[in-house]
Design a protein that fits this description.
Largest sheet: 6 strands, parallel
CATH superfamily of one domain: Alpha/Beta hydrolase fold, catalytic domain
Shape: globular
CATH architecture of one domain: 3-Layer(aba) Sandwich
Helix content: 40-55%
CATH class of one domain: Alpha Beta
Distance between the termini: 27 Å
Strand content: 5-15%
Strand order of the largest sheet: 2-1-3-4-5-6
Radius of gyration: 17 Å
Number of helices: 11
């Protein structure tokens, strides 16, 4: 199903009420995409932080998805809602697997739960060489190309933001995060076994995670809802910030499921 394409004002999410318990306002933890930082969630953080505690984790440390997840958990609240984009989504799924009581709900944005195929893993090697030899900008231009985004005038500003985030993090982080993605396990079963409110967001123009695959997840378990955004590709939080913000506000209002 498609989200509205016109921006709309954020409605404060209704408190989550458990029978016999006081209202719950969960803190929200954002996990950035590959070579991303808080700027990847600027619009969402600005809107949601008016109503609840919001934190953006750093994924600059760790050699594997598991190590990154443990680093995030060490600094996270006891229980939280987690929003992961791309690489951050892979880490969110690892958190759900390794510490199922910690994440009260998940939002996965442009996140493929399937592990790299041998061909995809091998394709990353050329970009690793570029990053290691002082050509990080070339590596990023090969990593995220204009045809991975929705067509239109906003693609280039989005790519500029991506490049700024990547150059801030630097080549060593590029290498660590690439290796972590290459070595990550398949988390399809984890996704299908989730018993907490889970939102899956994909972009209509994302060539790596086709819309039909996103929509198929809607039928995987009663706790998952999938949404495809017409005006986005592989970076929905930057390409269609209002649509993503509205989807997250709605998700935070879903009834809470006790793990």
């Amino acid at each position: 199903m498609n989200l509205p394409l016109t921006p709309s004002a954020l409605r404060p999410p209704a408190p989550l009420v458990l029978t016999g318990a006081r209202p719950v306002t969960e803190p929200v933890l954002f996990l950035p995409p590959f070579m991303g930082d808080a700027r990847a969630f600027h619009a969402q953080v600005s809107a949601l932080s008016a109503h609840r505690p919001v934190t953006v984790a750093s994924l600059a440390q760790g050699e594997t998805i598991g190590e990154m997840a443990q680093s995030v958990l060490a600094a996270a609240p006891p229980r939280f809602a987690v929003v992961g984009a791309g690489l951050g989504g892979a880490i969110a799924l690892e958190i759900a697997r390794a510490a199922p009581g910690r994440a009260s709900r998940l939002a996965l944005i442009a996140c493929d739960p399937v592990a790299d195929s041998p061909a995809v893993s091998a394709s990353r090697e050329a970009r690793l060489v570029l990053a290691r030899t002082g050509r990080l900008r070339e590596a990023m231009r090969a990593e995220i190309t204009p045809d991975m985004l929705a067509p239109g005038p906003f693609a280039w500003p989005v790519l500029a933001t991506v490049m700024d985030m990547a150059t801030t993090l630097g080549p060593q982080v590029f290498v660590r995060q690439t290796r972590a993605l290459q070595r990550r396990g398949d988390r399809t079963r984890v996704l299908r076994s989730l018993a907490v409110p889970t939102l899956v967001i994909g972009g209509e123009h994302d060539p790596r995670l086709r819309p039909e695959r996103v929509e198929a997840l809607d039928r995987a378990t009663p706790h998952i809802q999938a949404r495809v955004i017409d005006t986005a590709g592989c970076l929905p939080t930057l390409e269609a910030p209002d649509a993503v913000t509205d989807a997250l506000a709605d998700w935070l209002g879903w009834p809470l499921v006790l793990a």
